[in-house]
Amino acid sequence: MLLVAGGGLLWAAPASAQRPAPLTAGLLRVCADPDNMPFSNQKGEGYENKIAELITKTWDSKLEYVWWPIRRGYYRMLNGTYCDLVIESPAGLDMAGTTKPYYRSGYAFVSRKGSGLEDINSLDDPRLKKLKIGVNLFVSSDGEHSPPEMALSQHGVVGNLKGYNVSYDENIRPEDIINGVAKKDVDVAIVWGPMAGYFVKRSQVPLVLTPIAVAVDSVSGFPMQYNIGMALRRRDHELRDSLNTFLDRHQSEIQALLREYSVPTTPIVQEKKEGEKSSAETPNPAADSAKVAGRH
Predict the structure, then answer these.
(1) What is the C-alpha separation between 107 and 216, in angstroms, rounded?
(2) Answer CATH for 104-211 from 3.40.190.10, 3.40.1280.10, 3.30.70.270, 3.30.450.20
(3) What is d(CA 137, CA 163) in angstroms, rounded to the nearest whole number?
(4) N or C: which end of the chain has fewer CB within 10 A?
């Protein structure tokens, strides 16, 4: 399939149509979800699509997408050389190499304006034990759930969660969890910031986004915020260095894109380096970090 992006041509094909291949000069192969707004889709409408286009335009390279749902072994596709880059990934990921972070975001509560719940910003809020709470229903390859869902159980919030599937199709959509709040199917929802910001902004029912106030949940130890960079194979040092230079030079354009998509951001936190003990203020995103948006 041949698409047009930013005035140039790009190739897009499902991973099943691709073969593993090494890095090729003048070509950047990007793993992207075909149906996961606001991040990416096959129409090139997501902010990950726009960042990928900016990279290849800057480098005068061809952009080729390998479409693959984020919930199905995303990083195996990267490490298996089916693609060269994942545009968005927790910095310090243990499954692949990463660039420097280019933004930081976190989980947030979504509530209806005027509901009296707009001030909930902690998993320790006692009201949560009596409310119906929407969460994205994601189970990783190691059987663990998203950080907020796992943390809630340690706060004694059980039995009142409603799960929203992340296996999207024509009937199951990314915005369903936000619509669940708008339609009063749930009282509040806990949603990854970029998704929450994008769909709250576009909701016909007035909604309020309230970020979880802490970077790390004190009871469970699970991070609620993450530095976000790009993922690539650890051995691709030259590509990593080039991407870091790109991020330095185009940070203002990237931040403008994030604002356009209503992505809530917070200042990037300096993570502890490998071998150093992480503190509560600077969590080290280890194995659970890939669960941020269902990437495993």
Answers:
(1) 11
(2) 3.40.190.10
(3) 5
(4) N
